[in-house]
Amino acid sequence: MTPTLRVGATGFGLIALCYGFARFAFGLFLPQIDAELDLGASLSGVISGGSFAGYCIAIIAAAALTERLGARIVAISAAMLAAIGMAGIALAPSPAFLAFAVIVAGLSTGLASPPMAAAVVAAVRADRQDATNTFINAGTSAGVALSGPIALAMNGQWRTTFAIFAGLAVVLAAVASVALPPTRGSPSSIGLPRITKPLGSLIVATFLIGMASTAIWSFGGQLVSQNLGWGPTGTAILWSGIGTGGIIGAWAGSLVSRFGLQRIHLLFCGAVAATIAAVGSGVAMAGLVLASGALFGAAYVMLTGVYLIWGVQALPERPATGLTIGFLTLAIGQTVGASLFGLLLSGPGMGTAIIAFAAIAMAAGVVRPGFCPARA
Predict the structure, then answer these.
(1) Which of 50, 158, 160, 244 is 20 to 30 A from 233 via CA?
(2) How far apart are CA 289 and CA 309, in angstroms?
(3) Is the CA virtual torsion 327, 330, 332, 334 positive or negative?
């Protein structure tokens, strides 16, 4: 097996598990979790925000840990935290315990991406790095797509499902221990980078699209449950559609190379806005909602691929740190957005929340990358 294939396949699996299962599957099972533990809209938003907060805590340290300890150790740690967090979700006897477990599971996602960016730079030839990075990043969609059929097969039994996910995380930790290179950065790469125009623009864009995305990631199940009366089966199908659509995100690197970062960014921010409006409108037909879910998955994973390339190009000598800056502010936006959407939903109502979050997605799209034309 070539280094490109070995690193790419391991990274794809790690991202699928940490993002698709440990982080975003919570929104899929939220209606059933709410029914059993009586969370309510506001508390659901706070707990969902806790997942994103856990991500923020971990990713702040992830780049430095990768540069000091190496990609292999940090990737193994990500898989093991996912296992512990999801086992905690499966066993949660109360909202407080659940919130803690969700935060631990969220920590795994913060640790997962930076070591993979470093591993790609170390093991993959330069002309294949953007494509490999965006392929790995598309693992999110595979995890989300698989979580839907698993939920259907388990008949909505969220505790058993998260227990299975935890077991898979342990297996993946073992795979990472033999498949990834033990890369380390140089001492000169330690510390905070200078905030250039591309990095500043990246921070603004990722914060805004992170906020907007929580309308679907954290509350998509609630929206279709309230608007269309969908139960666990309908919500699982929606999640599978989101994940399947997200596979398109694997081509982010090719599209950016052909059409430029700025055009692709604007196009898919607009797609996120449109899908939020369609899923939350309350008047869309079931088929349109499912199609919108697939479009949301494609747009979100495409955008995270765009932000990955954006961050790595902005700091080519420190790829783990460049990725970390974009993905950290994306998660900060999600932390704020999940709580804000929950408050709007329980206060002014669904219509206000949907309009506000679709507008936030459009605002993200107008942010310019700040590179010279040849790179933007």
Answers:
(1) 50
(2) 30
(3) negative
